[in-house]
Amino acid sequence: MSQRNTLIRSLHDIGLAAWFGGSLMGAVGLNGAAAKAEPASQKLKISSTGWARWAPVQLAALAAHGVGGVGLIVGNKARIAADTGTRTNTVVKLILTGVAGGATLYSAILGRTIAEHADEDAEGATEPGSGTSKELASAQTKQRVAQWVTPAVTVVLIVLAAQQGEQQRPVAGWLQRFFS
Fold this sequence. Notes:
Layout: H1 6-35, H2 43-75, H3 77-82, H4 84-116, E1 122-124, E2 127-128, H5 134-168, H6 173-179
Antiparallel strand pairs: 1-2
Helix pairs in contact: 1-2, 1-5, 2-4, 4-5
């Protein structure tokens, strides 16, 4: 028997899509564009302002994904309990969601440090300049790596969610008739 979880699945998937897409666009588009800004004193201001504007949307995306994820677990608890593959997928997704959430939080903390130094000249949002303070340079160096963790982990979560959705899908009608 097929069970529909359209609302919670939508919250889960849309939240995850926004989380992935926003983090990827920020690393590639926003930070990349800010690195090209002139004068150099504007680079960190542009990047920090863009990330600050995105933060409420990011928070809403994380909340939607979390509510949807919990809803899917509750709605599919019997299947999770009965099927080892589904249970393993769910546990891996929970762990990776924690990793992505931690990476997002860590990037936000680094971003706050970078924003506090927005008046300094820099080569880019994650590239220190010759006159960059040690505190800013340290945050930028860490952010250069951290900004890629969230999109990398969330894309894996998207694949695992697709796999789990495929596990739940009933066999196509003609195939079912063929093997019946």
